[in-house]
Amino acid sequence: MATLIAPTSFSPGADAEALRKAFQGWGTDEKTVIAILGHRNVYQRQQIRKSYEEIYQEDLIKRLESELSGDFERAVYRWMLEHADRDAVLANVAIKSGSKGYHVIVEIACVLSPEEVLAVRRAYHNRYKRSLEEDIATNTTGHLRQLLVGLVTSFRYGGDEINAKLAKSEADILHESVKEKKGNHEEAIRILTTRSKTQLMATFNCYRDDHGTSITKKLLDNASDDFHKALHTAIRCLNDHNKYYEKVLRNAIKRVGTDEDAITRVVVSRAEKDMKHIKEVYYKRNSVHLEDALAKEISGDYKKFILTLLGKKD
Ligand SMILES: [Ca+2]
User: Fold this and answer.
1) Which InterPro entries match (predicted)?
2) How far is the CA of 29 from the centre of ligand 1 (A)?
């Protein structure tokens, strides 16, 4: 369930005019920008962008970039892009940031549906004139490269059928692979990059039943290198992405100095999808509402915008 509150009827022309007015003169009327864009769904935002371009012969996103600044500007910029295009940008930033960005690539590949991942790869072509997988392959090596390229190029089957025997045997293969670092990583990569999510869920359950601990706990014990960390993230995203996102937010808030980029990424990506569920998981885990925890850590227009996307009433 989404946290975004958007009206059922709206006028793209009137919104474009109000935004233009908010930009005029020295400075910007940020309150109006938040009141409008923080309450429009992806379809409506594209309509406003189109309308704005038609009336003023100016790209709304470019104008927003020049009017706003800092974390607020970055959040609004990401929010304004269509989903696949935004994920293409996030993936590109992640590739360029090396070891600190691998989890973002894994997130996109493992949380999105196979069709959505395909759309991101298409958007990446359009934007960067290269393929997502070639950029990943150029910037990584070894098992990590095999895993990341395998995940983004995977087109998993999406049905509910489970092969219980296969789940059991592949749980054993995974167990062997993560037990020791020199394990059979090729087979672990094959399983994680090709099996359907439902089949993998059954495999992870078998792992827990047969080996007395969850595969993610086991991986955490030796998740010191980038490959094992990426493997760990992949399994968490495939298994229960709401739980995964709760932890991303928890760590971002907990960190000294706060990780605004992570907060922006999760809120902007999930506000129109399942942010309500992530908020519930957060509350269950921390006994504090996500909005209250965030309100203490972030500030200014950025804070107002993020809280608006999280469903705060004006
Ligand atoms: Ca201005």
Assistant:
1) Annexin, Annexin_repeat, Annexin_repeat_CS, Annexin_sf, AnnexinD_plant
2) 8
